[in-house]
Amino acid sequence: MADMVGKIAILWRGDGEARRAATPENNRYHRVFAELAALGIAAEPAVYDEDFAEEVRTQLLRADGVLVWVNPIQDGKTRAALDAMLREVAARGPWVSAHPDTILKMGVKEVLYRTRELGWGTDTHLYRSAEEFRAGFAASLASGGPRVIKQNRGNAGMGVWKVERAADASDDRVRVLHAVEAAPEELPLAAFLTRCEEYFGWGGCIIDQRFQPRLPEGMVRCYMGEDRVVGYGHQIVRALVSPAPAQSGPRLMHGADHPPFQTLRRKMEEEWTPEMMRLLGIARASLPVIWDADFLLGPRTATGEDSYVLCEINVSSVFAIPDQAPAAIARIVEARLAGR
What is the pTM of this model? Predict the structure, then answer.
């Protein structure tokens, strides 16, 4: 093996025992560790929890770069303390991917509103307070068709609802379906709006989008290494589908050259990602080493081709990943180390 050319810390959440036992081989990121080592890059586990944050902070400051895999909400904990620590670490020298400031630009649901005019956008509203939500959502719902509301920060479907007028809407009732539930419920619209008020505390806003009727056909996850496509995942989903399938289908992974998704690849690499970077003020060097954009199928074009509607961008913790992604991650890390 060549002489080591840099040192990388790979950070994920775990308890004290997980931190003590972690090696480059005994975790879900073992292929990333292996690809980094193949390029002569030393990488070490940096298992994190708030209980031993100072120990992790000291470890990160000894690295040249940090790769982070931590969900916005996990095990009942948020990233608030972690993000503050990562900002401090990045300010003192090591680069961090994804940097918390980049997450706030592209890895939250607000990006759906800020980029709604891009080719991946749809009818989208944003509410920054419970008062705005109460005043605006009723009109949005009355405009026709089901809506999907999303809390700004979350994962695994938390805080995501399909909302439509109940069959008998004479008393202003709505039919709602949470993304992690299989059965809908009916309740007064005012009661549902009250239920969602807690989302303003952690996430700061609520996003309201038009429901995409082709959702039962599945979701396409486009994996990106910086600004290049590194693969896709195609999956039949049960979230917000009624009646829901017994379970979500397996996510079928494909490489970047998979023929059915070459139109999506061209749009992502040549149009949408550059436009997003310009609109959000993100330099290429600040893009996450690995991120993904989840797309639903939109209306077919006049020639019968698929269109794509952005559902969310995942930045905080992108895993599982296509087989080609670990090598792409390692190459991007190598380039970032060379540019220091």
Answer: 0.93
